[in-house]
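INTERNAL AUDIT FORM
Audit reference: QA-55
Scope: verify that the stored structure record matches its stored sequence.
Auditor: D.O.
Record contents follow.
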Amino acid sequence: MIALTSALAVTAVFLVATVLVRRHLVVVTVSGTSMTPTLHPGEKLLVRRCGITALQVGDIVVLEPPRVPVSPEVTVLAPLPTRTQWQVKRVAALPGDPIPPPAQEAAGTLRAVPGGTLIVLGDNNASNDSRLNGPYPADRILGIALRRLPGATFPGHDSPPL
């Protein structure tokens, strides 16, 4: 009887720990080439869920593209996905920062990043990012990439650290 109670307790602790970890961490698989040469399709990232206040320029983030204009000046809309379409991008500017040159056309008359938004760019210039969509709403952020995980990687490529 003690062994059964012990086994149930260990199982309960494991389940609670799993739920707590999943609330804070998630694994994302890179698809597409918008972050090459830094990241390649098939690479897996460990992502910590966070909001905009935890981010710094240069961080790699996972977020959804904007669905509606974030200001009257920005009229470019991303298509509505049928399911969550996460994007992996690099933070280029945060609220109050000047709009970086690659995103100025899509940002319209904005000269500084509005509150509650950020500018994200892919490392590959041929990327669907703030160059096309302007500022991204901060409520679309899933989290920040902490590290690559072992597993599927780009063949013949030794991935540098994030």
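Auditor finding: record pair retrieved intact. The beta strands are 25-29, 44-49, 60-63, 87-93, 117-121, 136-137, 141-149.
Action required: none
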